[in-house]
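Re: that chain you flagged

S.,

Sorry for the slow reply, it's been a week of failed gels. I finally had a moment to sit down with the sequence you sent. For the record, here it is as I used it:
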Amino acid sequence: MKLITLLTVIICGLLPKVLALPLPTDIAQSTTLLTILAQQPSLSVFSFMIQQTGGTRPNPAFEERFNSALDTRNYTAFIPSNAAMLKLPTATLDLLARPQSYPLMESFIRTHIAEGLYTTSNLTSTTTPPLITSIEGFPLSVSISTTDQITGSTLTLKLNQASLNLTDIPASNGRIHTLDRMLNPYSDYLGISTSSSAPSRGSGNTQNATTMAEILASHPRLSTLNETLTEIDPPFLTRLSLSKPNNEEQIYLAPSNEAFENLALDSMKAPSNVALSGYLLRVGMLRRNLGVLNMMLEGEVEGDSGWNVTVRKRGDAFAVGNAVVVERDACASNGFSPACAMPLDPDSCEDAWSLT
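Prediction finished late last night. Pasting the structure tokens below so you have them in one place:
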């Protein structure tokens, strides 16, 4: 069952009755986090995302950590409401529901959960909110503002870019609060290029390269990428050495060495992150409407991972999603691999996270 199917069910008002009846408080206090989450009718879309990671049950790693009495730690979940999830384009939700996107979807899930018990009291009782780090490792910044101090103040809370509603839904091992939008950490992590400079032309030593894999192996500006893929995703390097049927054109937007300068390479190569790192580095593999990039025009290009990438001209630069092309004309017999200032960010693809 795809996530988009659940959205249809929600829109039509056909959710099973079991989802419409929250557990009584006394039972909730003896029930673990993910089970409590599954009983919240207004949070059923995100809960279903978690369920999907393991087929009909959550990924066993999620069950063992967040839903087991054997793990004695507390966790706080900051969950987008159904209304927040429905603000996302349906195509984005459909992409996240695909099995090949599970590393990204699981990363988003872990971004919305933090270790520790963060209640309304300890989030608002001080002028300096606590520093929170999500399970995925991204910072969750709480900001508090008040208005109308004379006639009665109104408290407004934000968690990163989302409005935070302190619902304090109890579980035996934590709390659940709600958000008005899904958190998107990768624009900060991967970065957004602001360059307006034109790309250079083929300064790398790739004259003898016959495949895109050989471009990565021989181009001095792509050595970090080549070393990283060799370690974490050799099958993708093999793919870059092959031609498509009928010599169909293909382009791989290759993150340059500069793109990795602000990334934690050791963390990317950690066994627990290999699947996600490989997924993120594959987002730059493009397959349709490639003439837009070949001729350095504006337009939209379809990626192999399903994300459509928008190409825009900015000054003399060619912006591709969050990145810019820094070097072009790295051609091989099975495609070409222009160097980019940073890895492509799925968040930046085709307004995938735009809110209505």
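What I noticed first: DSSP finds 16 helices and 19 strands in the chain.

Talk soon,
D.
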